[in-house]
Write a structure and sequence with these properties.
The chain has a single domain, classed as Rossmann fold. Helix content is 33%, strand content 19%. The protein has six helices and five strands; from the N terminus they run βααβαβαβαβα. It is globular, with a radius of gyration of 14 Å. The longest helix has 12 residues. The relative contact order is 0.16. It has a five-stranded parallel β-sheet, with helices on both faces. The model has no long low-confidence stretch (mean pLDDT 95). Helix 3 links the parallel strand 2 and strand 3. By secondary structure, it is α/β, with parallel strands linked by helices.
Length: 157
Amino acid sequence: MTRIFLHGLESSSKGAKASFLRVLFPDMLIPDFKGNLAARMVALEAILDGRKKIVIVGSSFGGLMGTLYAMQKQEAVERLVLLAPALNFPEFLQYKLKSIEVPTRIIIGSDDTVTPVQEVLPLARKIFTNLNYDEVDDTHMLAETFRKFDWQALLAE
């Protein structure tokens, strides 16, 4: 199994979520991404090339990246855990959207103003055929709650 964390647009492999997950899962891939969505997707595809049984944790823009990767390489992805995924970003709608059957958990803050529940959830329900969804009392960063999630269960082999 390959676990990978995809950080948000203005974050990095040194951010709070990345640092937290690195301690819990020392073997997790936690790369840095730069540039626009297309450049980031090329980098992600190079990192995951040839891998199977991939578990993707994507935060915000990283959730958008994880979703696009799963659309392209569904057979290689075992599970998606998307934290406030940026499915409402205009870049997403430029891609040909396909259904994703991969088991997917979305966690989003009820006070998220960047990826608001009312914008993200309807689209997520159209795309993910095997969706579990949690709305938590938090903002976009999920700073108050992400450490409390049962990560061992979310990312179990």
